[in-house]
Specification:
This protein has 187 residues and is mainly α. It is built from 6 helices and 3 strands; from the N terminus they run H-H-E-H-H-H-E-E-H. It has a 3-stranded parallel β-sheet. Helix 3 packs parallel to helix 6, helix 4 runs antiparallel to helix 5 and helix 5 packs across helix 6. The longest helix is centred in the middle third of the chain and has 65 residues. It is rod-shaped and about 95 Å long.
């Protein structure tokens, strides 16, 4: 936030003194592009996708187990009804305890499935927050250092975030995004 305020203040100061603005060369960087194309971002996304796939596989296995229980429950209930329709009440009563057990197991497994789903979503969210937050912090430090190196190399007086730089003479403004990205990915 502080950096954005500083950039805006610098831009406002340049707007007030147009003579200084014409004499200086400026650079711009596309921070979103840098973050998205940075090799460490790609690695972090792969880790997150891998974890998501693992949790999805577990979820599917649990769903399959619940479906099997549900199918057993429905088949037992149908068999019990068929026995009652055939006037075989004693055989139907013999299935009541099995049906009750299946109903309890089904309720338990359905509850565990819901709990697993909620916990896995929470775990993924926390993992993403941590991984991407850590990456963002370390990237900010590295990007600042690399931007300064590239700016010094090209004798650029000031570098702005591209989305905050609306207009500039092509000869006075240099987009250093790709060079910064290349330097970051090389390290």
């Amino acid at each position: 936030m502080k950096k954005h305020f500083l950039k805006l203040a610098l831009a406002a100061g340049l707007a007030v003194s147009p003579m200084v603005a014409f004499a200086a060369e400026f650079g711009v960087v596309d921070a979103a592009k840098i973050f998205n194309k940075y090799s460490e971002t790609q690695k972090t996304k792969q880790v997150l996708e891998s974890e998501k796939a693992k949790l999805q596989k577990e979820l599917e296995a649990k769903k399959l187990a619940v479906k099997k229980l549900d199918d057993d429950y429905v088949a037992t209930a149908k068999k019990m009804q068929d026995l009652r329709d055939a006037k075989k009440e004693s055989d139907a009563r013999a299935l009541e305890s099995k049906l009750k057990d299946l109903r309890q197991k089904l309720a338990k497994e359905t509850g565990e499935l819901q709990k697993f789903f909620e916990e896995s979503q929470k775990r993924l969210y926390q993992m993403e927050e941590k991984e991407m937050g850590d990456l963002s912090k370390s990237l900010d430090e590295r990007v600042d250092k690399v931007i300064k190196q590239v700016a010094v190399k090209h004798k650029i007086k000031a570098v702005f975030e591209k989305r905050f730089f609306y207009y500039g003479d092509d000869k006075a403004v240099i987009d250093i995004t790709d060079e910064v990205l290349a330097a970051l990915n090389k390290k």
